[in-house]
Amino acid sequence: KKPKIAVIGSSSMDLVVTSKRRPLAGETVLGESFETVPGGKGANQAVAAARLGADVHMIGCVGDDSYGNEILENLKANGVNTGYVKPVTHQKSGTAHIILAEEDNSIVVVKGANDCVTPDYVKEALPLLKGCDLIMIQQEVPEETVLETARLCGEIGVPLLLNPAPARELPDEVIEKAAYLTPNEHEAGILFKGLDLSKALSDYPDKLLITEGAAGVRYHDGNGEQLIPSFSVKVVDTTGAGDTFNAAFGTAIAEGQSMKESLRFANRAASLSVTGFGAQGGMPTRDEVERGLAE
Ligand code: RIB
Ligand code: NA
């Protein structure tokens, strides 16, 4: 049976410049290309989960502008239910300003309409949320929304997958209430305020999943630390790899796959996503991941 997943989160337009290197402070450099592609961590996770076969419902906000229309159309085209994606008039659509440089990317996110994904707005979606197998959220929406969502998930008994990106500190209550937390090493450092990450992993077995990029993902299974290695591929663009990982993990776990299987599935999906340009370019279908796993 298709798992039913609600994604509470951001949807944005990514404004992507490719440049050999990023400018230093006060400097101008000539870049190679410019593209606008749909992004935002919430929308990326929703699209990735839909391509993997989940029944996905996005809860988000867009501006009443052309980017907002494109964002909505793109969600629909990917099979995401958009009944709870609200156009707002007093904020522009969220944007992410991305420099894809040879060394690495850098991103400035302007949340815009994503700030309208408030605790009250999430509560409006309660009838939908109650019937879900999993709820997913990230941190491009207000902090109070993450807290309220964690509380609601506790009340209605639906597991919460929190991808604590971009990095910020969180109340302990959220860490306790989330079923799964998926920071990268940098985000984990901020979340656990300098606590040794091995200690954090053993404190939260089968919950804390620390992603280590090309190396894979680390967690504690109650007996010991486990590293589920990633797959090596030719990298075109790593933007959105984390989102694909989260969506694939969430889909697999909501289907009832084991932790280990779900993480292997997630690693395979994420490794495929980096082979295409743009956050959602390269995000694989179910078949592509299954073929990849069988290789
Ligand atoms: O996780 C990748 C996303 O983060 C991009 O699509 C961009 O919107 C940034 O917010
Ligand atoms: Na990609």
Question: Secondary-structure element sequence?
Answer: EEEHEHEEEHHEHEHEHHEEEHHH
Number of strands: 13
Radius of gyration: 18 Å
Which of globular, elongated, flat, extended, rod-shaped describes the shape?
globular
Strand order of the largest sheet: 5-4-1-8-9-10
Q: Give the helix tally.
A: 11
| Strand-pairing-aware structural class | alpha/beta
Main sheet overview:
6 strands, parallel
How much is the average pLDDT?
97
Strand content of the residues, in percent? 15-25%
What small molecules are bound in this structure?
alpha-D-ribofuranose, sodium ion
Question: Roughly what percent helix?
Answer: 25-40%
Low-confidence stretches: none
End-to-end C-alpha gap: 26 Å
Structure description:
This protein is of the alpha/beta class and 295 residues long. It contains eleven helices and 13 strands. Helix 9 packs antiparallel against helix 10 and helix 10 crosses helix 11. The model has no long low-confidence stretch (mean pLDDT 97). Bound molecules: alpha-D-ribofuranose and sodium ion (NA).
Q: Would you kindly provide a brief summary of this structure?
A:
With 295 residues, the protein is of the alpha/beta class.
